[in-house]
Amino acid sequence: MAGPPRQVTAVRELTRMSARLQELAYSETPRGTISLRRRREPTLDVDVYEVKLDEEFLMSSLFTVAEIELARLGLAQTRGSDLDVVVGGLGLGCTARAALEDPRVRSMIVVDALAEVIDWHERKLLPGADDLVDDPRTRLVLADFFAMAASDDGFDPDAAGRRFDAVLLDIDHTPRHVLHPDHAAFYSLDGLRRLKRHLKPHGVFALWSDDPPDDDFIALLDGVFDSSEAHVVTFANFLTGGHSANTVYVAR
Questions:
Q1: Is the pLDDT of residue 2 over 80?
Q2: What residues form DSSP beta bridges with 109?
Q3: I need a surface site. Which of 95, 98, 103, 127 has the fewest CB within 10 A?
Q4: What is the pLDDT of residues 190-202, one digit of tens each?
């Protein structure tokens, strides 16, 4: 007995794909088209949330171990209690939510340059967004993190010159692979020195990177801070059947 016509088979496949993939938000921005989508990953039987800028994948909820460790490793090096924290890059909210798990955190400013990303959280389109936006310690600030870091006023729009116990940064892929050319100046001696002005004495700067430890960047950190360390964070990667790794730099 003959099977269904090719056209019917194609429609059925498209229907199955549509059921697995849903675009939750889509916007044109000066930096390109940004979209948030949810798809079902049949291998793991989980919902996966992904962010794309044009055709480039920025982040995925499949692999968030290192983003969480960015908060944990950075805050582990802070001193005292009543911590005031800045998170550069909201994304899927993994680093910010992990920071709030530390009971010492008194306040947290999360800076993101894309209104759309902040809107996704405020509309609670992402899992865990309630925990983040409803926490009274959290303030979501629409601004350019790198411009704030270079300015005299710093990261709090309501308190110029305010200093923080920790700055946790996850925006660019790596110090060498930046999302916008304007970011490159931050990853220099002058850029890091300007950042350090916004930290309290013994304050901590931590950075996520998709690459292995970069000796040249570690040398830059050592030229600005008293100490620095590159932590290699490994995690299972079902796509490859092995493990992948990111780097978390911590300096103070």
A1: no
A2: 86, 139
A3: 103
A4: 999 999 999 999 9
